[in-house]
Write a structure and sequence with these properties.
The chain is α/β, with parallel strands linked by helices. It has two domains: 13-230 and 397-419, Glycogen Phosphorylase B (Rossmann fold); 241-395, 3-Layer(aba) Sandwich (Rossmann fold), CATH 3.40.50. The protein is built from 16 helices and 15 strands. Strands 3-2-1-4-5-8-9 form a seven-stranded parallel sheet. A six-stranded parallel sheet has the order 12-11-10-13-14-15, sandwiched between helices. A two-stranded antiparallel ribbon has the order 6-7. Helix 2 links the parallel strand 2 (45-49) and strand 3 (64-67). Helix 1 (26-40) packs across helix 16 (399-419) and helix 12 crosses helix 15 (378-395).
């Protein structure tokens, strides 16, 4: 979208907004890597985080960190969850105050995660500088009340138009209908605050296929651009999958990720498997599958060591997987992937020979794939491993290249805001 913008456009400062400062998932890891990349390129960065800002590595970079010390919604009391989760006034007032004291016409704002702590209040605070605000869509919360285009009750992908009559009448929430009502109200309020995405600088999608979600929701595409998630391999050398026999799941251990289906398929097929990650379903599954090793959360480097025994990585998501950082990280390490067809990268991975896909929830079909990979000749597995590395490099840029693409977007929104005659707005702090 902005690839031809003037590379000389000055950026005074980048203000990055995200729920968390400590990574417990792919999205926050990408935010932290982006901040590191921006600092390396010499840009001034302010990081507004919803948590306590306890990531010392960010402070050591010289980044201005503004921590709101909020709690994740799931860790909050029911009253705070309803009140602050809907619209956290402290987030709005803090961002407003920073803008009032520091904003310039060449300052750009970049919103990442907001739904778990910060709330829709961030968009209210940023609306006067919306033309210089980039919104990164790591998920579907801009459009879909439950953030995933998934019917948790049916364990299936939802194809309804968000906030349509059919959507409003469908009990698709993972908890209950009252929670769906709360989420619907939040999405209606979000739409009212944002008003029109055409008035905002840019929405960055992490996969081209996400455009279909915005089309279904009636969003004009002129403010959308695609920057695939950057990644680095788990290992510096190709994993010799032809010598291995263990199938891995990596990620959150929750119902929507299909971990239970993965373990069931492995048990039926009689293949070795292990789980790396944590989540609300872990205790239940550990009790049911006592012979299977659950590693819990591990660092990127620790995962690399564990994966040296991998035959393949399985991504069994029931919910739509917009990108799936684990997918490309495994591929770049030479580990083939077995993907649910709900992963938006599934078709591309299969086409490029980096792995295979199965229909989400089809345990029998997954069993067949696991058995075939277990019994495949070492030569064929090695060829697939080598092809997996090629596929990963084709689908995901390096972190350095990704940061440069993001900077081009920043230059584009600044240039566009100047062309439209935007006036810098300074809040009168109440």
């Amino acid at each position: 979208m902005y690839q031809d913008m003037d590379s000389e456009i000055k950026i005074d400062r980048v203000v990055v907004v995200n729920d968390f400062s400590v990574a417990r998932g792919g999205a926050t890891s990408l935010v932290l890597d982006l901040i590191l990349g921006l600092v390396d390129l010499g840009y001034k960065v302010t990081f507004i985080t919803g948590d306590r800002g306890e990531n010392k590595s960010i402070v050591d970079l010289g980044v201005e960190v503004i921590a709101l010390s909020g709690n994740r919604l799931l860790d909050s009391s029911p009253i705070d969850r309803i009140k602050n989760g809907f619209f956290w006034k402290e987030a709005e007032s803090t961002i407003r105050a920073w803008i009032s004291a520091n904003d310039t016409s060449n300052t750009v704002y970049h919103v990442h995660g907001w739904a778990q702590i910060l709330s829709i209040a961030v968009f209210s605070a940023l609306k006067p500088v919306s033309r210089r605000t980039v919104i990164h869509a790591h998920d579907a919360f801009l459009l879909c009340p439950n953030g995933g285009f998934i019917d948790y009750r049916k364990k299936s992908v939802c194809h309804l138009r968000p906030l349509s009559q059919a959507c409003l009448l469908t009990n698709c929430d993972k908890r209950n209908m009252m929670n769906k009502v709360w989420r619907v109200a939040r999405t209606f309020s979000l739409n009212r605050i944002i008003d029109d995405l055409e008035n905002w600088g840019c929405v960055v999608l992490i996969a081209d296929q996400m455009k279909l979600w915005f089309e279904r929701s009636g969003v004009v595409q002129t403010r959308l651009t695609v920057i695939p998630n950057p990644s680095r391999p788990f290992t510096s050398e190709r994993v010799k999958c032809e010598d291995n026999s263990t199938f891995f799941y990596i990620g959150r251990v929750t119902e929507s990720k299909g971990v239970a289906e993965f373990l069931s398929a492995c048990s039926i097929a009689g293949v070795q498997c292990e789980v790396i990650g944590d989540g609300d379903q872990r205790a239940e599954l550990e009790k049911k599958y006592m012979r299977i090793k659950f590693h819990g959360w591990k660092s990127h480097e620790e995962i690399g060591e564990i994966l040296k025994s991998a035959r393949a990585v399985v991504v069994p998501s029931i919910m739509p997987e917009p990108f799936g950082l684990v997918i490309v990280e495994a591929l770049k390490s030479g580990v083939p992937v077995v993907l649910s067809n709900n992963a938006l990268l599934a078709a591309l991975v299969k086409k490029r020979g980096g792995g295979v896909s199965f229909n989400s929830g089809d345990i029998e079909g997954l069993c067949g794939i696991l058995e075939a990979l277990r019994d495949m000749s070492n030569l064929k597995v090695k060829k697939q491993s080598v092809q997996a590395m090629r596929t990963g490099n084709e689908l995901s840029p390096s972190h350095q290249n990704s940061v440069r693409d993001v900077v081009k977007v920043y230059q584009g929104v600044i240039g566009s805001s100047h062309d439209s005659g935007e006036r810098v707005f300074l809040y009168a702090v109440q």
